[in-house]
């Protein structure tokens, strides 16, 4: 019996050595911390789909290492975020955390990643702080900063659309504050004035009182940040209240992304800005959309793209490090220097590890967010407060 064990050990060791060391035997553990329930559930699913699709396209391996997945439903609840992320870091001992959607949850994750040194790739949450004061060598984002998603819409609303006054409406939390803040900055720098900023608690969808206030104030335009199921309800309620006929509703593109099947007539003609649009027409995007539709029997959205690109970023780092994520400097430098061939168009990372990317102006036509123009080319987040080591 003992002899048998020894023999098996020798075989395993030989295999490990042939594969480039003992590390080559283990799988890379990827922990998804995403919302799989609640108003952002569809977003979490799309991110997971996109990530898994890239891994599948690479034959199940990144940088020569097989991938093993772990999952936690974060419910978009900041109060549970530290416990949830520690489940992945301490219990499952993951090598990489991929998450999340909600900015408040993401900030707790960034804190835990900074303390533990675990690699964190943020596939959505735009919290400005994550690539601002909380920036760190092991924290990367494949999505956007909140400011970045909305600043261009403010400029377009004032300069191209000629609007002078606007009201904003959103959920009261980091993403809502920063996205409407980005719009306000762009709008007011371009000569407009935000006359009132309306909020309600996340994830409430009782919009009627606020819609009545908008109807009474009659601004030239309204800018909103909502996403997921909340965005569906808001756009429908705005339309049902008769407001879309008189006061154009603008948004960061989250307001109409992955939601058009459900929003239908209510969303037609809406203008938004975002770092992705449907049918960009490039070969890269066409291949991505075809594969996604085949794999999941549904069309991809911006969240699927961000999940896919999180896997691409991990692949770049792992490949450079020969599959050894412990080679932190090599891993990090490779991602910092890379150009990521995203379905959205190529992007690079800023010093703070946030995408530097084109922001599209899009218009809803049928079930698509059609690209009208590039509202801002290679837009970089200002990364206020980031001191990268
Ligand atoms: C965020 O909380 O940062 C957030 C959530 C959903 C979005 C965009 C940003 O669609």
TrEMBL record:
- Keyword Signal appears in the UniProt entry: yes
> Keyword set for this entry?
Signal
Which residues constitute the signal peptide according to the record?
1-24
Domain (Leucine-binding protein): give its ranges.
27-366
Q: Which InterPro entries match?
A: BCAA_transport (IPR051010), Leu-bd (IPR028081), Peripla_BP_I (IPR028082)
Q: Which family does it belong to?
A: Belongs to the leucine-binding protein family.
Name of this protein: ABC transporter substrate-binding protein
Organism of origin: Comamonas terrae
